[in-house]
Specification:
The protein is of the alpha/beta class. It has five helices and five strands. Strand 3, helix 4 and strand 4 form a beta-alpha-beta unit. Helix 2 runs parallel beside helix 3.
Length: 163
Amino acid sequence: MYARVIFTLLLILCVSFGAEGAKFIQTQYTKPFKAVVEFYFDNPEKIGPALGWVSNLVYVLSNPPYNYSPEDIDIVVVSHGRELPVFAKENRKKYESIVERIESLSFYGVKFTVCSMAARQFYGYSEKDFYPFVTLVPSALTELVHWQQMGYGLLIPQVLEVK
């Protein structure tokens, strides 16, 4: 009897480890796809890699097999860290390639919001200082909770420094 149990366990292990590779599963996502993305970085340059996370969402959902239209993808970026100067018109030259990526994503329906408290308190910015594709909100923290209460999944890009 013990021999049968051991044989069965060995057979299961052999089948498990003998597989050729991982199994791919095509997840069925629900429309509209709703995400709120928090940008809170200690360096404005980190917004570049973080935009890669947002671009990845848009790319996967807008291409086969999903083929979502911009109306099916609802992404809200909430920014409240040291990356805020990237959104200010006065810094376009310095962050031009990043601004172009942000503007491009806004054409796909990604909404970019900036915490007005942080903008005013840390940089002295007001509404007139930002691009037309940026919306100021009262508080980033309140905004993040609001969108989650509305059923949006929270995504917080991790941008690591390679040393």
